[in-house]
Automatic annotation (TrEMBL):
Pfam families according to UniProt: DUF4259 (PF14078)
Organism lineage: Bacteria, Pseudomonadati, Bacteroidota, Sphingobacteriia, Sphingobacteriales
Protein name: DUF4259 domain-containing protein
Organism whose genome encodes this protein: Pedobacter rhizosphaerae
Length: 160
């Protein structure tokens, strides 16, 4: 599988994708991958899944909701629509009734439950962000990173 941990940048495919994505931050390419995952009827390939989950984590990192050891010095517009599409694609990877190659690879490992819990954690913090930071925003309006000193954040909000 090429993975050395349960986090989404702990695999070769995600690292390669991030290195390709970083120079320009072209979200059109990632939206194409998300659309492919969402349109799939029979088989979700592991490469699209690795990239989708890496993008899920990148969104959380860029919004200051979590941290990564990967270098993520890239700017790109983050919108409510992009976050919601990424969450929907992630749900499909995790719960697709047909063949989700990456999920099946993880199901065969001893780390399946921690991996699934980590994806659920990322979905939760992004969903919580949308509820608190994005209400009333236009779907395509850029959203801002979390202010870590914000009064609405509980003291342990970023425990992962």
């Amino acid at each position: 599988m090429g993975a050395w941990g349960i986090k989404n940048f702990e695999n070769d495919t995600a690292v390669d994708w991030l290195n390709d994505f970083q120079p320009e931050g072209n979200t059109a390419e990632i939206e194409e991958i998300l659309d492919q995952v969402l349109a799939e009827k029979d088989f979700i390939d592991d490469e699209e899944s690795f990239i989708t989950l890496a993008f899920l984590e990148l969104l959380a990192v860029k919004l200051n909701l979590t941290q990564t050891t990967m270098e993520t010095n890239i700017a790109f517009p983050i919108t409510r629509a992009l976050i919601e599409k990424t969450i929907k694609a992630t749900h499909k990877i995790l719960f697709f009734e047909n063949h989700s190659e990456l999920r099946e690879l993880w199901e065969e490992s001893e780390e399946y439950t921690p991996w699934q819990d980590y994806q659920s954690f990322l979905i939760k913090i992004l969903t919580d962000y949308l509820i608190t930071a994005g209400p009333g925003k236009n779907m395509d309006e850029p959203l801002s990173p979390v202010d870590k000193n914000s009064a609405w954040l509980p003291p342990d909000w970023n425990k992962n």
